[in-house]
Amino acid sequence: MPNGTINAYKDEIVRQEVRNLKELEEFRLKWLSKKGVLAELFSQMKEVPAGERKNYGQEVNTLKQLVEERFAVLAEQFQGAKEKSNKGDIDLSLDGSSLEIGSRHPLTIMRDRMVDIFTSLGFVISEGPEIVDDWHNFTALNMPEDHPARDMQDTFFVSRDPDIVMRTHTSSVQVMVMQSQAPPIRTISPGRVFRKDSDATHSPVFHQVEGLFIDEGVSFADLKQTLFFFVQEMFGEGTKTRFRPSYFPFTEPSAEMDILGLRFNHKTGKEEETWIEVLGCGMVDPAVLENCGIDSAKYTGFAFGIGIERMAMVKYNIQDIRLFYENDLRFLEQFAGE
After folding, report:
1. Bridge partners for 202 per DSSP
2. 316 and 180, same structural domain?
3. pLDDT tens across 189-202, in order?
4. How many domains does the chain have?
5. Sign of torsion, CA 250 173 219 223?
């Protein structure tokens, strides 16, 4: 290896500018790393003729010493600047950086509030998988194959196995609870569900809180009083309610519950008092109890299902469900104080 090449490296080391910590690291990698210049020069030692090897080794060691001394000086220089900055040697006239305080999403606020109300009544939380089999999602709930009620819950199936489905309601969790626990059962099942709906009031992905109470002597009066308590806690004392007959394949009799509230009328441009649907409910069909191994001659129960998005839309007078998913801070920051 000609001495001229090593001398050129010496000149380059002295001339190389290092202006910040990033460039200091680049300097180290170029000269001192395992794949750097010095490592390469030492690896070439075996190729130098025996008579020149001693002189070559001395020149490379001298170069190595020069690199290490320059790196040490630069490292100390930048470390001193860093310590000085950490001690508060800063320009206080510069604008500071601010951190915005986040808040809970309105759906999280509503879910937590609903859970708090029902757990105060002795309900416990049960959760389950979002991908279930057809039996837990439909058949066990009195909706066998080709039952017309399945059309109301058009959903997403896994193409390679038509028996696997994205759950359309958290009732599948209730089926699992009834299979694994003996009455009395008092549980709520909050979670995400999926249906092929998409417009201003429906989303293909939304959230529910479903409730189930099974014991000896449970009646429709127990159901009405439970849901009446929920509405008073959620919307305030004195909120008027009504029950309308409805149909669900897994409850009999079935009903929908409305509250009397204000809703914006787009035709008149004013808020008007009207009945607003908030949930569906009913007495658990005896066939569902039997499907899950519970003696329907001994036990009765009630169930209800509440859409978290629907409840938030009614509570906060929101007209478009898609606002919950757009991540628009102008919308979300309105709930910072909730």
Report:
1. 199
2. yes
3. 999 999 877 676 67
4. 2
5. negative
